[in-house]
Design brief:
27% helix, alpha+beta, single chain, 34% strand, 7-stranded mixed beta sheet, Aminopeptidase
Length: 149
């Protein structure tokens, strides 16, 4: 995978279009209707993973500290259906965590994770904070990863 880490203004129309198209395909068509453009993309870093043919296969965004949570927040974590089960999702999360730790050393990371993915995120050091809740009619958990000293 070829990884690109950019701020919103630097994405360009092709990266932005591909990211929104993949997000729409997964979050709206697969998981049900909701408003994906939430006004937070402009205050975020974006991590895009393209295969050797240039097709976007993986994406996440990292919302700046102070926008959603005190810490930076990883969200909109997706892989295309064609690459699920290949380890690209795990590589995406690992890259996202790495980028957060490099960009905001010691800050920790907070996420709103789909509840069925709790074990996956726990394998990266995230722990559940609070009780499950519904977000867009999907059970979610707030999870946090402590910052390194």
């Amino acid at each position: 995978m070829n990884w690109v880490w950019q701020r919103f203004p630097d994405l360009g129309v092709d990266n932005l279009y591909d990211a929104l198209a993949l997000r729409c395909r997964v979050f709206i068509l697969e998981q049900g209707p909701y408003l994906d453009p939430d006004g937070v993309d402009k205050q975020s870093w974006h991590l895009l993973g393209r295969d050797n043919a240039g097709t976007l296969q993986a994406y996440l965004r990292v919302v700046d500290p102070g926008v959603k949570y005190t810490e930076p927040s990883i969200g909109r974590v997706i892989t295309s259906p064609e690459v699920r089960g290949t380890g690209i999702g795990r590589a995406l999360i690992a890259h996202g965590v790495q980028r957060c730790e490099a960009t905001w050393p010691g800050a920790g990371i907070r996420i709103s994770a789909q509840a069925h993915l709790e074990r996956l995120y726990a394998s990266y050091g995230f722990v559940r904070v609070g009780e499950p809740y519904l977000e867009d009619n999907i059970p979610h958990l707030e999870m946090a990863k402590a910052g390194s000293p």
